[in-house]
Amino acid sequence: MSTVANVVVLLVALLHVYILVLEMFLWDKPQGRKAFGLTPEFAAQTKVLAANQGLYNGFLAAGLFWGPSLGSAGLAVKVFFLSCVLVAGVYGAATANKRILFIQAVPAAVGLVLLLL
Predict the structure, then answer these.
(1) Model pTM greater than 0.85?
(2) Are 53 and 96 in contact (CB under 8 A)?
């Protein structure tokens, strides 16, 4: 299995840790509001929902860290979690913000391609 593929998997994992932090801890702070284009009022009203969403991003990150730690036995784990990220990214781009396609889905797709080559 390619070292480059594992690096991409770990970068996607780190991205999801960052998203977790934004959604769980910074949602109603200036950095979180800027990242998601939120008004202070909307951020305050949706803070609990965002924290829940952030937790799910944390689960994705955990799986993406877990896969490479399993060595060659982790291929299925990496493919599964990258596929989850890809689906979430495509859905998010279709329903929330087109930027999500490039921020979340494209890196996951690159990781999948590298893993499966």
Answers:
(1) yes
(2) no
